Queue: 2 jobs
Job 1
Amino acid sequence: MNNFNYERPRSLREAVSLRSRNAGAFYLAGGTDLIVQMRDDLLKPSLLIDLKALKQLEGIDMKKDVLHIAALTKVSAVEMDRTLLRTLPFLCDAAGFLGSPLTRNKATIGGNICNASPAAEFGTPLIALNARAVISDGEKTRVMAVEDFMTGVKKNALKRGELLSGFIIPDPKGHKGRFFKKSRIKLVDLATVNITVIKKGTEYRIAIGSCFIKPLRIRTAEEMLRGIKEPDARLLGKAARICAEEIKPIDDLRGTADFRRDIVFHYVKKLLGELTAKGGQR
Amino acid sequence: MKHYSSVGKNVKRYDAEEKVKGTSVFTDDLNFPGTLYAGVYRSPESCGRIKKINTVKAAKIPGVRAVMTAKDIPGRNIVPVVFDDQPLLAEKYVRYHREPLAIVAADDRNTLKKALKAIECDIEETEGVFTIRESLKKKRIVNGLYKDNIFQQYVVEKGDVKKAFAGAFLTVKNSYSTNYQEHAYLEPQSMLVKPELNGIFSVFGSMQCPFYVQDAVSAVLGIGLANVSVHLMSTGGGFGGKEDVPSIVAAVAALLSHRTGRPVKYILDRDEDISVMSKRHPSYIEYESAFSKNGKLLGVRTDYYLDAGAYSTLSPIVLWRGVIHAVGPYECPAVSIKGYAVATNKVPCGAYRGFGTPQIIFASETQMDIAAEKLGIDPVRIRELNAFKKGSETATGQVLKESIGIRKTIDAAVSRCDIGKTRSEIASFNKKQRYKKRGLGISCLFYGVGLGARGGPLQKGGAFVSVFKDGTVQFSVGTAEMGQGMYTVLGQIVSESFGINPSAVLPQRVSTEKVGDSGPTVASRATFISGNALLIACDKIKSSLLSFMLSEKMIRKASDVKFEKGYVYTGGKKKIPFTELSSKAWAGRVKMAEYGWYLPQGTSFDIRTGRGDAYVVYSYATNIAIVEVDMLTYRTKVLKLISAEEFGKVVNPLLAEGQIQGGNAQGIGWSLYENMVVKNGKILTDDFSTYLIPSILDIGQIEPVIVEEPYKGGPWGAKGMGEMPLMGIAPSIGNAIYDATGTRLKKVPFTPEDICNGHKSK
Amino acid sequence: MKKGFVHEINFTVNGIKRALSVHSNETLLKVLREHYGLTGAKEGCGGGECGACTVLLNGSPVNSCLVLAVEADNAHILTIEGIAAKDSIHPIQQAFIEYGAVQCGFCTPGMIMTAYALLQKNPDPDEAQIKRALSGNLCRCTGYVQIIEAVKAAAKRMKGKRG
């Protein structure tokens, strides 16, 4: 690991200004991915801006039916948050599937999304929830869909001089959802496929990760199901088939493309089935 | 039956307390002032001719103390194992990816990293040989020393195989293959070499075989064996992975220490460790079995190929063990077993728990199941029908005379599992569940204890025992403690001999300074070999004590004496405390420090004919696996694993259970999760996020069952057991997956993709 | 407080307040092992995948190979050396010995630290919770069975003590 400058700013403005003044600067959130890359000399920051002191960037808050999750909230905090466990338990499930407990005690939800891995655990639940990323330049904020925030493998929409401060989930109540992660081994492995499906009233949302350069919503399938209270097995199968066709997976160490399509087909169908069947609580 | 006071008890590990407190000293925890850090510059190509290695830039970096290539080696440029065909540093050709080309010592790790990056090489790349199939075509030769790309081959033949197959009611023929397995000991390879006065080098490290390391350091430095003292540090797991390769690690550190006159530490990074250290051989097996209508095994014909990598290392003996065990623990009148260790341009494979047997057991035990189904015989029954009993003859013609526990292990596993009930529960589960299917599978195996005939001059072991005047005892052996609990087991063996509390017996750290070359710590031999050597030493001391007691008129005749419960019984109920006798004997100038030397007797195997007694004795095991397969993700979960193991008399049940559970877990890993991906000879899965070993969540219920069948020739009746728990897990899981899904898997590991494809093709 | 790549940090290690100059690229693991001789935490992979380097950072178990020493400024660190006095033994350590949960011992300090944090938060965990908590600590020797038994036993004893 190379040597680098290190700063722990006390304000958001200071953090952002450090970032804009230093071309080789990186924000340090949990560091569980960043430090590994630095160890292997894949990244050589000239400056690390540790956001640890910015306590306003940590916490989960429900205000007037809008859920705020600050970017530096630890993954383990999302996993065990009482409000979330009640309202959006599948988001807690996703948190619980990120790395090992040791990683979750340090990694942050914002880091997971900024890092923008196609397999990012929070990718599918957040885009299925229509979550919005709150971006700050130290003074003003702008807001965009998380789906657009993640722009490609390891790429995000932040401009220099900006920082992801958190997420807004509008109207979080009344979602029934399921998170699913297929990996070769429990928990610690990266996903071969991950899927979030949500039903809100008669609106359906399907998001799939690890099958494209970023997590994807499959809107054709969603539209097909829209308005139908209890879609039958044939229709669910059709929706699942569309999902398996629309993804663009690759062969890699964690599975072949064909295998991924197969998993997506079976699991979208199964998860949707669970949501639409009577008693599908979560 | 003998009543034991120490043997058979769960005596606390000697090293447990230091280990839970974090004070146990592993190699990287050891620090001497001025210690340098060593690293290795490695070949970026898998195969080619070395045109140039440029170390000039690296040598100029401040803080770099030495950079060496092959030409700088003062002794011989070899890694001594069996055939001595491997250079420590490649000189003219590179034969596998990341083969060592140059070595560096620097003041700190960052400088070291910089220096390694500054070295450049020019290699004229040539096309390599990456599979067994390609290698056998002999179009390209991996190493000129072996013109046919075969390091070693064996043939074992018995009876009239042709006739057996011609007259058989059923013949079953299949091909099998298995992938690598990485040891993944949690402590990476580590060595520290320190120059002492008088031209002596002290080597401190993590290893299984101190005498191998001594040999290697002496060879590369060109100094006498007496100039090399090897000391075992706490060793963070071995599993075969610290058998031969620590020689390489020590040789690198020793060369740099020799050059700089400073202590040098070489600790491998995990990616380096996974990429370049030995592994379980990938294999390809053709296996044909012949059966009578009632399920008797009539004949076996098999060709067994190991993908050995670029150098022969331990492959000749790994292959031998596989060949000897190819039929399994069954009577079989006609066999033709051919084994080949094949050269490829990949990392050299070596020892891994089971040593060439897990691959062939996977084939033979899958064959058994296929035959059972075709014959309509229960898979348990077909194994019982064929299992060894007293007087049975092995494939090499060895007649088994005692301590043959295979049937006992079958009974024990079946009854622990309550197999009838379990099967009906599985059937009703499968009826109810749509997406989940359960199944049960069985496997049986045997294991030749110790090195066996092919071990040649290594079949020996020394021990030193010293009784002090206060009745406490110290002992030293030449085999290594690497976590398995050897110190404790041997301490129990010694304390049983003197009839004293094990807490009065203390092991000394293993070192080449303390006992003579005792061979390696492999082949489940430590308890058996070092235990017997210790008992020889103890008997010598006891015999001196007896003479002393006779001469002092403490006893009338030697046969009256018993050493028990801390006392020496001197006839009838008369007794004196062992501590008191020790003190008297000390005052009487009795020799209470003795050396024991044990040579296993009775192997007669002849390599040329493939006939004879291969090992002095065998251990036995039966495994039953119960699995659940998710029919949507095709992920397999082992719900329960029952492992019934017979290894003579058990010395420490808790430690033995730990060995079984740990071996079982590694077996689950090899069967289901550990999938090494290699492309053009380059290992792509070089960390724990891509090469996945089981976590605590991936292991179901593991139930060890210990079955005893004492062996006269073993210390207090013990045989050896460290490897068996891993060896038969793959076929038990594979057979269980078949039972659950109807998909027959012939390739290890059993990946979800393979189960999926098998399922779809039906 | 910094000068070039060297930073002055203040933190508490096993209850003792410490001040130290560290380089920005030094990890907490390195500092604990090399500056303080606290070698109980081990480097098994250097990439946060094995858990052998587990220490508690402000009460939560983390991989200390993925914590920069500078990040530990103002933090409380607890290592295996700090959970029991030199001549005493913590109930978790005792249970690990009795239940055979120790083989090679390389993963053991990390494993015990994670178990320690678990039992602080949840004095009465069930088997599933134990497994989940320990899932980031790899062990290649034991097959985990005796580790689970040891943690269960330790929980029981510690609860008994608290009354």
Job 2
Amino acid sequence: MSTIASTRTGVAVRCVNVVQIYTTAGGHDVVALRGVDLDIRAGELVALLGPSGSGKSTLLGLFGGVLRPSAGRVLVDGTDIARINEAELGRMRSGTVATLLQGASRNLLPYATAAENIRFARRALAPSARRQQPAPRELLDRLGLGALTHTTVAAMSGGERQRVAFAATVSSGAGLLLADEPTSQLSHDDRDAMIALIRQVNAEFGTTVVMVTHDPQVATAMPRTVTIRNGRIGAEGRHGADFGVVDEDGAVHIPDDLALRFPAGTLVAFEDTDEGLLLRPLDDPGRDR
Amino acid sequence: MRVLLTGLWSRRGLNLSCFVVTVVAVSASLLGPMYGRASAEHLLDTRIDQRAPYTTGLTYQVPALHETRLPFGSPSAYRPPDPVQLVSDARAATQGRDWDRYWQRRTPWLLDEGGQLKFGTFLFEAPLYWRQGMCSLADVTGRCPTRPGQALVQQTMARTMGVGPGDVVRLHFTDQYTYELHDKDGTHQTEGAQGRTAVFHVVGTYTVPHPSSPRWYDLSRFTGIANLRPPPTGRTSGGSLPHTPALLVAPGSMTSQTFVGGVDLPIDTAAVNLDTMAATQHAAGRFTGMALGSQDPNVVAELDVTSVFATVRAEHALLSRIMLAALAPFVVLALLLLFALVSAAAQVRRPHVALAKLRGHSRLQVLRFAVSEPALVVALATPVAVVLAYVAARLLARTWLSPITPVVADQSAVLACVAVVSAALLASALAAWGVMREPLASALASATSPRRASRAGVVLRSAVVAVAIASVAQLLTSGHQGSQLLALVAPLFIALAVAVAGAELLRRISGWWLRRTARARGSASYLASRRLARRRDLANLMLPLLLAVSVIAFAGATSTVSDQWRTSRANAEVGAAQTYLAATSPGHLLAVTHRVDPHGRWLMAAVVDNSGDDMSRRVFLDSSRLAAVTSWDPSWSSVPVRELQRRLAPPPGTPLTLTGTRVSVQVADVHLTSATRTRSELWLQYVDRRGEQHQARLGGLADGASATLTTKVTGCAAGCTVQQIYLSGQDRVASDAQGSLTIAAVSVDGQPVDWRLHDAQAWRPARPFPVSLVDPPVELRASPAGLRVGVFLAHLPPGTGAQPAMVSGLARITPTTTPDVVPVLVARDTATSAPARNSTAMAIRYAPDVVVGTSLNGAEVPMRVVGRTRALPWVGRVGAVADLGTALDEYAPLFGQVVDVQLWTAPGTPPAMLNAVRDAGISLSPALNLAQRHLELHTDAFSMGMRLFLIVGLATLLLAVFGVFASAVLQSRWRAYEVAALRVVGVRRRSLVRASVLEYVVMLGVAAALGVLSTLVSVWLVLPSISLGPADEFDPTPVYDVPWAVVGAVGLGVFAIATMIALLVSRRIARLGRPSTLRWAEQG
């Protein structure tokens, strides 16, 4: 029996001025990401936040090699995914990166059992790499899903499916786990169990985890959050504290709660004070005082 | 494997559909060649059975005496060989060299054709025959001859001769010998002959129930006709006639110089098949080579397996082409449906394929994952299809062919099966490839984006149209020399082209309809037109139904045209439901049929002669029964047969009759001269109640005197019909008389009778005899003194030159109830010519519709064409039909002329009628049977192929209906989302159902209509290029009219089915399309 820890190492991800443009069916171009710069260290646990259409899933797709950037560089474990061919991308998806799609059913063969889904997920691994992975039953036991080993997916509950989907996704021993809304449509208990699993994998195996979520509670549980707004990195959170992010143009996004006080077009003045940088609107009454 | 099987089961609906379609396609690919092969085997057996056994079997004979070894000195020096030894010699000569392999065991026989039988004034050839087991093969009344001098006599012959058991039959033999002749030139060896009589005691009578069976081996090959034909009554002199049926005797009766011993080896149909035909042919060739060196070449020449096998090979080839033409659209449709279904299945598996790619599976692994399921379906379906095809082929062979016909899968069947299975696997791989090549990001999206028409698709559609146009152009320009295979598959190309063009046309019409309905109030029409205008799969949905309609309607049309043609051929070849050779004179048969069947419902007398060309191919029949008795085919003429019958009939009038025993004719003012000093005589020609024609000599004519000429008439006690009075030389020799005489009065048995001698309209000059197309050498003038007859033999009436010698023999007058110009029906392709107008021998000017015809006695006569038809009974598309009674009155057969007299009977003729004819002394031998001929023509290769074509057409329709229905049902789930969305925005359910029904009815209805259009194009352009089977020279030609009833029925039937599909699918969509459906869509 192989040990899980011996096969796992986290993978670092780096985005350099990544731009992603879609062409719609009607022939129009839509800019999804506008010069994103982001560094994720190996073994880090990161949640991507942001409103719908902000570009979170696009960024996840780029990390997973599902998409190629229109411009900029996406480095996964030091490899620029824009510069490798389909076969190498496939190899990367088989062993380096694992993607958990939104919706449990999309990650599983519904007519197969949990164990068969794990074998299916590992089919692309080289035989030697496959031998290093724990047996499906062992993996499921480790993740507390041993009872579902021989259960067909169609017969599982929503929460069970999501956890089995997670197990299948991580079963290849990838160093980077990308999870798109892993807790959506789950009950509170299932959601907590899911978060626990993610933490467990991150903690035990050192797997880098990048997760898209809308759930504030999930975000709170993550040591690092990155908020995407209009295709840019809008803010970051570290251990519960929110920070603005200065981009390469010197622009900084104001946190949402403060943005309400600064309607678009508001003129602001910057004052470097002892307490820090003071942002003062032009018609701020305090200035008259 | 478990994942594969559970996946298979999870999509069981789709996979089952794929399974069914694959089974159908593979079965069809196997069934066609297997049935084709079985049909060819059946045809081989049938063609062998239809031939006389001696043309396919081997016969070897050894003569008792070689003509170069005649006895010397006296016939008594001849010592006949042992008959048993003779047949043993024949048997030994046929041992070995594959002859035992392909021919059955040997049957020995002995035959002596040297005897002659005298009956009345006639002399017949009367053979003696012995065959092993003959008394069990024949129906014998009495006992089998066991000793020399005993004989069985054929039943009809015994009845005719009035002999039975215990009587004696004498045969006269002529024995030859050589002797030395001493004369002034020395001593010569020369041949002599000496007659002797052999006496046979009749021990019984026999009939042979199946004279042409391989076991009896058709004795008529040696002895000619199988029935003793008594001499026609009314004749006064004899002559040599053909053979009588053989006397069956014991071997010991064979003692003459002329007998032969032989063996027959009928062909073994169980051993001869398509594979062994060549070897059989080779063996037959070796036998011919061996036999030619030692026996009568005529016997050997009859062996002709080569032509039988050539016919079978040609029919097999034709059958194979029809199979291919029938099955190609079916298999193409099945593969298209399979492709559509596996594509639908691939779409269902699209997320799973995307998942495999997301998990980093290699291209090969993804392909294996995507293809394994449909490939497994094909793999499971193939053995089932093989078994099904075999069972179906066996069933068809048992039902349509014969229970013993072997059903095997030959090389072509295996190749076809492999090709279709490969095509099915390729279709599966293509469908999987379509999903595989989709980018991963797109595949992971929840919906498919609409695809533009691919360039390859456009090219493919253009190619289909181009191939259709090219094939039709090729057929039209090459005429009947074009490829039959191309002609048979051209309808498929046409249907495909019409489908492509039709789909485009429907899309454009839908766009126009959409613009119109967008401004109208009704939402159903708008929604239907919108769906039609936006559908990308129009061609895919229309094609199956269109193709099926086209295939079945074309098969139906071809089959109908072919059936009608074969029926027409049978009707033309046979003439009536059943025909019989009648051993009597035409007049006698005519009279008997009128007496036995006075209403003209069942029986008809006919005289046929189809040995010549054009107008000399002719049938004289009792025209009053044309409509009731003949097998008149409606396709022959647009004029009703009853009207044609009326036109053929002689003009109305009461014939001249005489009743009594003595006729006296008073002549006056006889002024006749003859350059050859030939004495003229006056003759009377009449017909008695039995229909027999008589010539009675009234007496010689003395110049210048008045006289009463009297003759005895026979058979006129109950009345006779006067046909002619004629003047000839002494004893009816030719005369060159010139001058005139007056026929003043007639009396019968001393009582004056009115033969209308004072009526100029009652008599007319008759044509010269023997006849030629010249004016009669007679002028008639009625006067109070009687009928003045001007005679111009040897000179025309104006005296402008000598008549042809053959014309100048007789001067005849006849009552005008016999028409001068005979009405005649002429077949369409008969060449006719008008009587020559510039002849110096012609004074009469005939109307334009008068042509030169051929009379019953073979001479040319003027005939009036009263109708031209596509074909006529017995003669087919070349020949003529005229009234028998009219022909007999003026142009009866010459003395000694052999004519083919037949009795034609209507369907269902009561046996009592035939018995009554036989009781009248007329021997009837069955000649042709319409039902039998009909069956023969309808069991040839083309007919058998067309029958399968129809079945395949029906199967194509069922498959298309299944495919369209399955496709619509598969689409109904996502269509339900659309319907649900429309219901949410307030569109009424009723409107949505109506819109859906309208959409499907229009789409499938247009497909059915285009299928009919495609059929019409094929029938008009392609059908005339298709050979409907081999035809004889004079067979009626096919009528390539569109069988509107068949095409219309198919079109309407399919439209009804389309409407039903539309209703069922629309109701299902409306049922599924509830607002809650949208929630499922959200949940994925």
